[in-house]
Amino acid sequence: MKFINVVGARPNFMKIAPLQRIFNKSSKFIEYKLVHTGQHYDYNMSDSFFRDLGIRKPDYNLGCGSGLHGEQTGRIMIEFEKVLLHEKPKIVIVAGDVNSTLACSLVAVKLGIKVAHIEAGCRSFDRTMPEEINRLLTDAVSDYLFAIDQISACNLKREGISEKKIYIVGDIMIDSLLFALKKIKARDDVLKRYHLKKKQYGVITMHRPSNVDNSDTLIQILNIFDEIQKEIPLVFPVHPRTLKQIKTNSEMKLLLNNMKNMIATEPLGYFEFVQLFTNAKFVLTDSGSLQQETTFLNIPCLTMRYNTERPVTITKGTNTLVGNSEYKILKYFNQIMNNRYKQAERIPLWDGQTAARIVKILLAKDKK
Ligand code: UD1
């Protein structure tokens, strides 16, 4: 059975790596090719993840880097179609909600090739987010929809997707997180590098267009970071999209440079970042995946968004939505500093076995 695994942007790498490990073990029955669209291309946004997660070198790199959404999606489609015509796989496996996910799903379905979507059914119900459009459309054309939980599965059913196509398999990110935790067990090099003490600092990540593309909003958020770093050191690996904005604005540059307790770094590799956030007192983020990872590890997480496609992290986890409201961020930050925060419950199937469940389902379907 021949698969094509697609990766493109940073959050895809952790979602494909566990599958590859299972594929490698079952190599007698399975042939797979890895396609990297090239959406993320910096060493720290891409190559370092291949190294840490042991992902093999891509069989194809489409080299479709930055661009406007239509342009980026279109370029990926043109290049990916050539790969599919040549390789003729049985199933294309895509993950998450980035432009590469949608572009490759569309090409596959139009060539009559089945699509398997990992992390199907996540919905923020906010169509101004590019990711929400990618999620809706990818799920609409997918044949195997692998959901992280019951809520995502319900979203899919509500959209009229046949129950027969939906499988609740848990969160594959947790497979990668457990893999990383085992590998970095005794390491504290990142903490040493930045002179950090366990549970005595916070971690920030931020890259959503809604937070970083508008300079007034970004300045307002940086001012909030300024307040927080007066009380506790902050480490902020800066995403290229955010860096681009800050670099071109002297007020922002000055603001960030003047924060004495703020460590702004380049994006970190996966193992380094796992080491950093697992030892943090709290995380302040607008990422999707980090909401899940912090819930799994019971680390307080304040999400700088007004909605989430991962509501289980609110109802059963440590996540709180704070938008970019100074009042809310500081209120919940103060609670965390006083050790008052929600405790996470165990979420069914977030157990490190999600990739194994996915492969089992795909192989069983092939026999029918
Ligand atoms: C993309 C995903 C987002 C995901 C995020 C994780 C879409 C619509 N968005 O957002 O869902 O959460 O990745 O990081 O697919 N850039 C570099 N080097 C790189 C990659 C990007 O410098 O390796 C810069 C470029 O200037 C580019 C900008 O970052 O224009 C944005 O990159 P892009 O891939 O378009 O979207 P992200 O904001 O990274």
C-alpha geometry:
globular
Sheet-strand content, in percent, reads 5-15%
Helical fraction equals 40-55%
Low-confidence residue ranges: none
Class from secondary-structure proportions: alpha/beta
Helix and strand element order: EHEHEHEHEHEHEHHEHHEHHEHEHEHEHH
Would you tell me the overall average pLDDT? 97
Ions, cofactors and other bound molecules: uridine-diphosphate-N-acetylglucosamine
Count of DSSP H/I helices = 17
Sheet of most strands: 7 strands, parallel
**Distance, first to last CA:** 13 Å
Q: Calculate Rg over CA atoms.
A: 20 Å
Count every beta strand, where a strand is a DSSP E run of 2 or more residues. Answer: 13
Describe this structure as you would to a colleague.
The protein is of the alpha/beta class. Helices cover 48% and strands 15% of the residues. The strands form 2 sheets. Strands 3-2-1-4-5-6-7 form a 7-stranded parallel beta sheet, sandwiched between helices. Strands 10-9-8-11-12-13 form a 6-stranded parallel beta sheet, with helices on both faces. β6, α6 (150-158) and β7 (166-168) form a beta-alpha-beta unit. α7 crosses α13. It is globular and about 60 Å long. The chain starts with a strand and ends with a helix. The structure holds uridine-diphosphate-N-acetylglucosamine. Uridine-diphosphate-N-acetylglucosamine (UD1) binds at residues 9-11, 39-42, 45, 66, 97-99, 130-131, 207, 239-241, 244. Uridine-diphosphate-N-acetylglucosamine is lined by residues 9-11, 39-42, 45, 66, 97-99, 130-131, 207, 239-241, 244.
